[in-house]
Amino acid sequence: MPVGGFHPGSALSVTHLSLDEIGHILEQASRLESMAPLPRARLYAKRRVSLLFYESSTRTRTSFELAAKSLGADTVLVSALSSSIEKGESLKDTGLTLRALGAECIILRHPNSGAPFLLARTTGVPVLNAGDGIHEHPSQALLDLRTILTRLKKSSRNLAETTLRGVTVTIVGDILHSRVARSNALLLPRLGAKVIFCGPEALLPAEAADIGPGVTVERNFERVLEQSDVVMMLRIQKERLAGLHLDLEEYMQQYQLHSERLKKFAPRALVLHPGPMIRGLEITSEVADGANSAVTEQVRNGTAVRMGLLARALDACNPSGKKSGRKR
Amino acid sequence: MKAILIHGGHLVDPANDVDDARDLLLVDGRIAAVDAPGRLNTLAKKQNARRIDANGLIVAPGLIDMHVHLREPGQGYKETIASGTRAAAAGGFTAVCAMPNTSPVNDSAEWTRWMQAPEREARVRVFPIAAATRGSMGEALTDYVELKAAGAVAVSDDGKPILRDDIMFEALTAAARAGLPVIQHAEDTRITQGASMNAGAAAFRLGLRGMSAEAESEIVERDIELLSKMADRRAHLHVAHLSTAKALEAVRRAKQKGLHVTCEVAPHHFALTEEAIADYDTHAKMNPPLRAGSDRAALIAGLLDGTVDAIATDHAPHAIHEKEQEFERAPNGIIGLETALGLALQVLHFQHGMALPRVIALLSSQPARLLALEHRGSLAVGCPADVVLFGANEDWRVEAEQSKSRSRNTPFDGWVLPGRVHITLCGGEIVYDAGLTS
What architecture (CATH level 2) is domain B62-370? Predict the structure, then answer.
């Protein structure tokens, strides 16, 4: 996998992670999750992890922070407001400052696609991409994968090109502006899954199908629901609708996941949503809180998977004199 | 009297249809004589000429770059006229045409003269291209007659398009009367807001907003339409840094109709595709953006079949801290003066079989003709002694750190290219010497 110039503990794109590495991250997630809190907190005690957030976030930030703290690491949160970023400090200099303050891993959320690559290149520190622009959200794809594997009763051991063979995952809604959609579409087909992007032209350009093998574009939601084992609903980002030709009423008519639709076309499908949900828009409360939904499991899996990613990053720095949390 | 004899070389002078072994005698900054090997020895001795051994080298007219950004006035931290022309000389160029998107914009005779003043310490000839509209705001025309008298060789709002139909029509009309081409940066900026690369699958994958081919081709088509409505046959539309198959096709059709439309292509557009962006490499960010493989192939075909009139670098220096930013925030452009000849030889001559005289023509006599630069791009007796000596088969390694430019922003760092420049002479003076020739 190409990781040219980046610290090997980084997770910038799901395409940089081999299936073996992903399997290892998921195993670590399970192992760490099942540990008792106190011994777990000794594994990476006082290791320094920085959370650098240029965008607002509830789930991802809290989840990464909890994951780091569960491992015993010290965390520092730097957000764009209330820091020198406001004064015009560049991403490079902010990163170098954090490194100088002892950061062994930087978790970055940034509005520009590709920003984590710049940070990783200029600091040499392991960087975990917590969402960059409309590009990728690797930890989300990994937690989605963990949720899918668990719900479909598949093992996360020995991940291979066939692990998700015969599984169709439909991702619905604002694909164009979704980093979650991209990371999942770049990851799941490598495990044998078929990914269908579904949405209207304005939110889903035809060229999206060329993102990689195993991905197709469909417009008719009900038709694709019938063949879906997993349905991942995306938030309609109202702030991005300005200038797009999209009628919200019509959108809901065609693409909202409500119980009648789910019962009729995919009664057994697993329903996912990366959050934040806009209940009543892309998804109704009945579905979000219903038996098919794994929305809260996703959040729980998020912390576990992020512990796995952090353990990998901190193991890769492995400063002398500090104990490694990795068991060989 | 100062005389130089360049002997033993292979002369490629497309303007005069020479592609043969020739010696060249330069006297007092002009070409004094061109003759078969050895035939100028007596005359040279009489003139007490310094001898330059060009054995194994190509001797060609000094290259002319009709599209560079020298950043002066106003942005000397990126480049100065002195540093930019040093880079030009190192790349074999003896004349460069400086775009007006400086700070302030060169939209006056004063700034046009300022750029050519001896205090700028230009190493090679600088021909200013003046703004087509005041402040390049696209609203009111500048004074083309006055600008031409001050030395401007064309008008352009490069960096920005002239969007308004009426203003573009007026610009073509006024420029025709003044005897200047209008150089258009063809980009419909109304539909490229926030875009930082070529539109398509790669942009989708990278999560970057894309500029469509239509954003370029529709402006080219609009301009051609305006030109076709003009009665004044002197009107000349030149399309800057053409980058798409669609726009090229529009130019090809216009030429077939006999319209005076010409275009240039930049080396990076025939050498690279959007794939060069890889992991958000800002050295692969420019405007127009690197395009798809099919566009690159079309440009090469257009260079081979003569639809493309010239190669121009769009040399655009930027400081390290400006390029070391988030991809969407980094400025557009790369330096290109030192790599143009090498890339043209590598891609066009060696990979696609373009004859050497044609490569040289695209880099010298052709731009001279487009901009009516009299006696430039030619090695005829009486012309200025602007000459480049290079080893066509001689490989060299691009080292950004060694660039004569103030800036380092090139995607070609580390590339091995043919066409090592040995000596560049401008007006009979050696302005670059790699120290390889005795």
Answer: Alpha-Beta Barrel (3.20)
